[in-house]
Structures
1.
Amino acid sequence: MKSWIEVPTDSDFSLANVPFGVCSFPSSSTLSSTTLAPCTPRCCTAIGNHAIDLHLLAEAGLLDNLLMTTESDESRCSEIITNFHPRIVFSQPTLNEFMSCEKHVWVAVRNRLLSLFLDSSSSSSNNDIIQIAIHADNRLQQNSALQSQCMHPLSTTLYHLPASIGDYTDFYSSREHATNVGIMFRGRDNALQPNWLHLPVGYHGRSSSVYPSLASSATTAENDCERNLVGGEKMSTVRRPCGQLQVDPLDPAKGSIYGPCKLMDFELEVAFFVGGPTNTDYEQDHNQQQQQPRGRPLTLSEAQDRIFGYVLMNDWSARDIQKWEYVPLGPFTSKNFATTISTWVVTSMALEPFRCETSAGVQGGGGEPVPLEYLKDPNYGSYDVNLSVSIQPSSTSASTQICTSNLKNMYWSSAQQLVHHSVTGCPMNAGDLLASGTISGKEQHNFGSMLELSWKGSREVKLENGEVRKFLKDGDAVIMKGWCQREGSGRVGFGQCSARILPAIPFPYDSSKEKVVESTPKQPGERYTNFKLYGCWWSSCSWTVRIALAAKGIPSEYDTHIPININLDEKALTSDKHSSITLMQQQVPTVLEFMDGGNVVRISQSLAIIEFLETAFDHRGGRLLPLDPVARAKVKEIVEAINSVTQQLQNSSVMGMADSISGKEVLGNEFRKQAIMSGFSSVEKKSCHNSQH
């Protein structure tokens, strides 16, 4: 099988891969047919040297009518998937909405993309890598205009975290690594702790310090993710941490001092993103008389379908800080300062053809403990993923490969990790990140950390430029790679997981020496700028828009262009200043003004403004409107009911006309009261009906 899109032989992103990620593009990109500005992150895939904008494929209708195929001994049938909305899902700035779908949706989307990328001359093929019969869909191949819009060079693409990570857990599941560390600190006879062969050991990390490799400049101002050029590529950076260090390594009684970490280390890991609906049941809350969601344990078969895909991970470690703090509760600040992940998520479907035995072969052999029933995996195994780590000092553009390993060097599988994580009833949400722990092999060149490669600092690791390392130095770039490949087939790779180490910032931290960054910095190439809101104090619409601007983190100037010390009469809304801003005099006191390039744009009506802010700034802040189409429609239904039935009667100009027609203010007030009460009563009934359905 081959694609009509050129795929270099050494590309990580062959037709056998089809990973998912989140990207944005330079402001010079031409995206005239989309509501998303180029700098807005959106869901993408990759093939060859191109990132493909899934948002645009969805807008063009190429991801509609996805098929779910079911098979039985007697027949094979397909049906159209309902309740999946690709235009909404793939316009999001993260993959969370897509991840939260069930596995058959992931499979259907990937199959459709395979068919769109497949050369028509390769139609209806079935091989051991793709594993299914795919028929070419030439709608993208024959649409050069759409190609120019949705295909972007990887070299100019800006990368973002693929998901909003709710929770992050790091395991310790490579037996070879756990044995090496145990020998160093406890001796060969006590290398593994008594519980290690009984359960997947893990600890909770910090999702707030998980950073993307090759990150876009949108995140450069925060959390020490500045940009550097390394080997012609942009590379993220990580700041060497400071913390408490043991004064005498041999005598903890002498206490600690504060200072920069001296033993900074990488950890070669592979992590997976959880997908699918959260594992919850509902229990009756007798105090509140309603059902409350409660987490429930996952089975191994369920866990297999909850693994969305995998990324490479460098779980940076401060070994000397860790040595002092880890007793008795384990690592803390030594592991919470930075974790770097690759940005393309390789799906479990793409890795399935590379399933293999683990380095352990079986669990419970040779008289060792047999896993408890809930951890017994009938499909126990891993994936044959080649892994490597290279170091590139700041003094040279050349890098030195210092170790290789493989994902099959795992004792506890990903499914077992996920099952054990949920055994107590812990809810696992789409976007949660679970990491393998350091992956080491049996030989010295297969060790996945400097701690092991230098054997706790007792031996040197030589670099090609003549330098040596025991632990990492400032300016070192650590570059991790991972890929699967069989002879005669395309590569399934992860791209790079890379970052360069910056020097520590000493205590006390002087923020005045750092660049002052606005709380809501402008995105590179931001299309809409210089916001100004015209409104007045009595207008609920003005306050609604002010809240929306604040929620999206958009700085704006507020101009009460209608003086606040006048009565609610026509004078305010017929002023020359108001007339110059809006044509809808006497009815619309709220106008949002901003620059679109060199053009001044003004939008009135609060709902129209909110729709604009939601679409143009979906990468900022929270959502202003529900994502689900039905819920969004019901919200708008209520808003429109208020606008058409009650809001007009509260308008100052309408109030004045009612008084003049009746000839008496009291009659005008009574008319408005009855009409508004009737309108709100209808809205109230509609709201109650919606909440029950």
Note: Confidence is low (pLDDT under 50) at residues 215-233, 514-524, 560-574, 581-587.
2.
Amino acid sequence: KPMGALNEERLSELVERFETFIDPIMPSFMYGSHYSTSAGVVLHFLVRLHPFSGLHRQLQSGHFDVADRLFASIPRTWDMCTGISAAEVKELTPEWYCNPSFLRNDNEFALGTSQDGELLDNVVLPPWASNSPEKFVEVMRCALESDICRDMLPDWIDLIFGYKQQGPESVKANNVFFYLTYYGSVDVASIEDESLRTATELQIAHFGQCPMQLLWRPHVRSRRHVRSMPDLTEMLGLFDLRESSFPSDLLSGAEQSAINDNDDYVDIDSMPISYQLAIASQKSRELETISNLPFLSAPLSSWVHLHAPPPGPHAALISLRLAGTDRCLAIDSQGVFHSFRWAWNPDVSEPHTTNKSKKDKNSKNYNNDFLPAELDADNDLDQADAFQKSSSYDSGCFVAQRELPNFRSIPRLPYIKEGDRPRTQQSLNECQIVCAISRTLFAGHTLLLCLSDGDGNGALSMQFVDPARGIVKCECILPAVHSAAISVIAMDPIAPCTGGGAGGELTIVGSEDGTATIWRFISSQYLPLRPRQRLGGHQGRKICSVALSGLLNACVSVSERRCCLFNLGSGLMLRSFQPPVKSCEEENGTYTVVRTVFADTPAVALTTQGFIVLVCQTTITTKSTVSNEDNATENTKTQITLELFSLEGAHCGSMPLEAFRGIPHKIISISSDGITGCAVMVCCNGGVSIHRVSALYPLVKLDEWRTISGDGSNLLDTKSITFDVDIGPSIHRPVVAAAACSSGVLRLHALPGISEWSEEKKRRSKTVSAAVGNVISKALPAHTIKKTVGNIAGIGTRVIGFGKEVGKEAMTDVKERGVGGFFGNVLGKLGKGKH
């Protein structure tokens, strides 16, 4: 329905006016106002944003409109647009679904005071939004992407762009507006009266205009794709807003009852490490019983653990990248390149049968859209749950190996920061280098670009590496890119932000001198010799982490006390913010000092949903304030937390990490389609944890990937560290996850859909082979190929026979006169040949 038809009482009055309206020149209409106007809708809703605030003041003679007419409250605006007023039929702008800043008066405009004495500032939100614009926008976006809205979207297109815009169908749909709002309804140039022409132009410009009609038949309905199994997004429940669908951080029954019986807060991080690990194991068991998780609940056949060859100790793999469809390139802490090859062998003996979706059950995280036709979920819920769990994972196993190619020199980075400590397993498991590997393949889709610190004094190294052989094809070192050593590098493909039209990588390089540089590497051009932009804003402090997103056209650089957001194109700083502020308290003779800084780690993520995930380190110092200084005590505790910020710098939430996990080494954004970054993977001690990126449920833990050896049940093995993780082979279709771990271990894990992808790969390979065979058979007849091959075989046989004869003569000569006599005879003949 149109906005004016939502209220039945108002609609009846509008229809009556339409039927009784009689004018010899002006056609009858229902709505005198419009659903989309520059002044009444766009500038009305976006009055708190630049440049719309300036345009609004130009329209109002240099000042803001009367406070009672400004956009101040969402509930009041809803009541006006759905009430009995015939003048309010506004529709929403795109900012309602993606940009929460239009609801917040960050520019501190003086919007005035209403007649009720209310000072206008931020927009009043509905009670369910908890006074958070980020939560409100997220719920609106989820509603827009819901199945209900998807089913109704063709009807809205018919009203705005389709066959219900004009004509008899528009009357049936109660969708008739003032005649001047329709495209081409009047020829302005043919109006001779200047005043009438000016009035007509002002009417069209300021009171709305319908778009050009594009469709003259009903818009097609979308078809729901029925898959054999849920994808990664559905298994993690990233689009489920029900609170019961998320696993909670639960303790065991004894600890939970102890917390309920005592009002005192139980500090888990102050407990012994074994107790923390036991609690973490209990939390993981709670996760495992809640739903079918892609990592924690996966069967043993879904992953493979590739150890480094003996004897050891081995350097940790600190960076890796999945290349192509069956390769993986990694770099260890000593700067040496490692090449891996993998394949998935699906079990085709157990095909998945599907049917159309049925009604969902009211159980937690239950989804029977993937049940077979012969299984009646309404009668046997337990059997349906068992089938759902078994059908959520692909049947098959990995076939993987570490490639050991031949090389003249060890393929490695040009510069390695040498430490003073001896070569032990602990020192090899510490990240000592700064590097990044591109996701885009260069030089005809055969080589990967690797960037690293060139000399420890600000030089940037560029290397092209063959992922199939793990060797360096060429390298280049640019000196003096920064005035101090490079501290961090991050890369992002260009193709997603250009629709796939251009290949290459966007790169941001951070340095210890407090500056960062932006680089663009195009796969069809030469390597750049200078950066495109140079960024500052940290007042000379070391940049510890960077991230960028081509889809958002933004990048982030983080130092100890500041996080700066920049525009990729212009290099201008959009905003900066500091870590969350924690207050100091004094009670019962003790004084608590809380200091929070951004952790010195390259772990940061900039998601496409408009959120920034950072790592903070909070130091809590408790000092005694008694007068006797000899009895004064001081206790210090450190807490590592994940912090969620919006692009506007608003703090949306935090999630504390267990002490045994340490400081995270890497954070990457994940999705099932390469665009919707609704979750992040955090690499730390013991494995990888998956957290949701949401303003409603900030950084809630969804799953856990244990990368330790064995079945992953022994969390007491804290020596296993995960430094990097990658999902591929394509960002648009992730079917395998790879983790770079300590002691040179590579961990591969199968994601939903890998069997289907593997079968498609085999079919494409067979199709290409058949096409090449057809082309060769048409270009070269069979008898020509047979004759050519026969001649080649004959020549090869004669060459091999000649080689055997030469070998027999050489062996006879060696037996008679020895090796020295043989080489002397050969060299003598060569010398005589020269004379």
Note: The first strand starts at residue 303 and ends at 306.
3.
Amino acid sequence: GWYVPSFVIERHPEVSSFWGLQNQREKMASMFKRPYTWEKYCQLLSPTNCSSSFYDGVARRWPETDAERGVYYKSQLYTGHFADTAKNNCTANPTTCSGHIVDAPCSWSTNLEQQAFWNDIYLESDGPNEPNDSYSYGQMIQVLRAANETKSNIIMWWWKPDGLVLEFAGSDAELHPVTLPPASEICVAKRVGPGVNGRCSSDISVRRGTKAGSCDNDHHALKKVVCSRLYSDTYDVSPPRRSPAYDFIKSIQVTDLEMEDMLKHWALRGVDKYGYDGRDAVCTWVRDNLDDLQRFIPRGYPRTLDGRNRYKESYMYAAMAMGIVALIVVFSTTFVTYHQRDTRILRLANVQFLILMLIGFSFVSLGAILFATQPSLVSCTMRQWLVTIGYTLGLVPLVVKVGAINKLVRSARKMKRVVLSRKYLFQVVLSIVTIAIIYLIAWSIVDAPTRTEEWNLSEKDLDFITVNVDCSSRYQFWVYITLAWEFMLCLSACVLSVQARKVAQEFNESHLLFALAFSHFAFLSMRAVTQILSSTGSASVRAAVASFLLSSDVLAAISIYFIPKFIIIAKKKPTALKKVTISGMSGVSGASDLSQGGSEAFQSEAGGRRAVILSEANARAKEIQPAAAPSNSKRQVRWVTGWSKNGQSAPSPRLSLSKTTFPQHHQKKEEDSDESSISCNNDIESSEESSHDTQQSQHELKLERVQDDSQSQVDRIIPGTGSLTQKIKSVAKHDASTQEGGIVALRGDEGNEEEKEELCSSTESSDEQFIYNTNIP
């Protein structure tokens, strides 16, 4: 509303009400003079032209800057000055003269022009701002200070509570409101509104409005001005981290008296009036009224932050201990494997591949230990590297080896040459591991796992916050891809184990591979469940569970795959090869032990020797049933495989066949005797032929020579009615002349089950390998 200083009321008490202001044109014009700017005063009124040499009592010098030229008051330099203008001259302008009133900008809630005009109060603003000739906020304060400095009469539009009002409180310049006609709802509704079509219109008649809106300003409560973004900034944050500021400001209530208390402190401090003083005034008031402000704090605040380190709980130490145990078991298994590397069961399992598996298990054990430690940028990344590469090394070598054996069996059924080198198998393993490493590098560069803090509100107590420290990336699909990779390895192992179930028993690890894959799959499934539930529960508990699962997976793998082999070694079983059945050979069983330097089946020998396994000697000759073969008549046959050294063919293998008739009562004794009792001569030899041989020579016998030539087979069928010895000699003679190696498959009369023979089980020549313990119908 309208305000006047105390010293004006003391001179003219009537001005405190519109009754003393109405229809007083000349009095208003003579009482309320118009203020002059510093420059305007120096140009028009100063007797010394504002010379610095002569102080005229108003200005000590000429204004030096543009800012100084337009001011109405400058402390210690320009006191301000009020004087009559043509608008105050009622002699020259008896119907238009007026006194001066300080009006606010039209964009404020002032209706001064409407109130003065319709209440016949002849006061007008004469400021520099159009359209209502108003003053800016700073200029209004300057005019008031100039009036107080010069004790000039002034009336102005202002408001309370405000610091300026409190600054002059208690002095002769204290501002007092001027009473206008009382406000009403009808009057307030009839007031000129804001905007260019209202108070800011260039048409003065529009700004003046109607008489119905000329009442006094109504009293209204203070309103809180809040930035619209404060709401979104508050509620876009998760509840545990949400600030109570918006809800607090929304609910807080400050009375006019409390506001005046703060404003008075600000106005009187006088240190940094338009800087820190305002903050100091508010903080001081909050300190003094803290107990009263407690009632405005939203429910659930203030909150208590649980600062306990969950990674120092007892279950985390237990998980770490189990990881260390798993690592020690892996190291111990590695030591035993290397120490027993020359034993037959480990040689057939391929010691190099076993070491790779154990390296992978050691990586997984280290990952289990890291899962039980406090997360950091390094540990979060190393967890995924160790576990992913560890599982890859733990499964891929076994999968590649079993896959190679399966490939051998499939090729044998098609009568194809199979050459498997150690270098190739290791290249396959290295290639698969490289794929995993490339993926981990991309993950670490694009979206590396890092330490994150997740705050959760307690369900029972809304002001208690628990902190979950975990490792995570911005996108969770990285973790799911690694889990899918491990699932794929387990699935491959399961499929290969099913395919290898009919492989030769000496090399058949299908049951171990299946059990190992099933174990990995079970623990991997549980780890996947914990990952899916990562948004719930305690992060430290999930990390401990993951650590226990990884350690248990390693211990289970060692127990399934390695411990049975160590038990067999500890029992000191015979090292001679057992009966080995190569699937696909019709009635033929065979086995091959490779070079003395090799430790695995179907592997190249040191020095570049490659074993050429010519399997599936599937002789399809007609079987001749002898006329009168005694039930205890038996044949002994030795088979020899050919070797290739450095690309050169080895000498032709030799075959020996002997036929011996055993008495019926010696049959069981012979069956229980050692294999060395079977004749294994280097030359072709034959026992005396019985009358049964004479009858047998009259029947047709077919002998198949199976030889690999550029992945195709050449079958040579030798028919005839000669004796069995003569037929074998003819084949051996042909081999000696052509220097060819290979396998000779002999088929004679089928006989009964008692006629099946075992071949010799050892040889002294490194260039010759026997297929042992073979039963031929």
Note: DSSP finds 25 helices and 19 strands in the chain.
